[in-house]
Amino acid sequence: MRTALAAAGIAVTDKNGGLAGEAEKILAKWWLGSRKVTYRMSCRFDEAARTAHFREVVLEKSWGMPPPTLSVEVTTTSGWTRSGSRTDASASGGGTVNYGQVRGAAEKAVTDAGWQFDFEGGRLP
């Protein structure tokens, strides 16, 4: 699973018998302020039940007066599961976050190993 997360651009660390990861996906800054969008995830493994409990969140932080930015977001939400992407473009930066890419890669890696994948939506990593 660590390899699948690294391929998705997530910096992975070990955390309490599981994995935690983070990636800065969108950054736009200028001398009056900035906007940053970060993806965070965690996965806890239950050896007895052979289940991986997965959590994720996309956080946006800004300070000062963020730069003028054009944002295009195409999403589908079903329960707690969010799919789609967001792209920000600005003269001072930008980027793209794909809401389902990491979750999909993690689920495939877990199920290919013969484990159950449990997405814990609505809970912070």
Outline the secondary-structure elements.
Layout: H1 2-7, E1 11-15, E2 18-30, E3 33-46, E4 51-64, E5 70-78, E6 81-90, E7 93-98, H2 101-112, E8 116-119
Parallel strand pairs: 4-8
Antiparallel strand pairs: 1-2, 2-3, 2-7, 3-4, 5-6, 6-7
User: Strand tally, please?
Assistant: 8
Total number of helices? 2
Q: Specify the structural class.
A: mainly beta
What letter string, H or E per element, gives the SSE order?
HEEEEEEEHE
Task: Name the assembly state.
Answer: single chain
Please indicate the percent range of residues in DSSP E strands (runs of 2 or more). over 45%
| Sheet with the most strands, sense and barrel status | 8 strands, mixed
Q: Tell me roughly what share of residues is in helical segments.
A: 10-25%
Termini separation (Å)?
A: 17 Å
Radius of gyration: 16 Å
Coarse shape: elongated
Whole-number mean pLDDT: 93
Poorly predicted ranges: none
Polypeptide structure, described:
By secondary structure, the chain is mainly β. The chain has 2 helices and 8 strands; from the N terminus they run H-E-E-E-E-E-E-E-H-E. It has helices at residues 2-7, 101-112; strands at 11-15, 18-30, 33-46, 51-64, 70-78, 81-90, 93-98, 116-119. Strands 1, 2, 3, 4, 5, 6, 7 and 8 form an 8-stranded mixed β-sheet that branches. Strand 3 and strand 4 form a beta hairpin. It is elongated, with a radius of gyration of 16 Å.
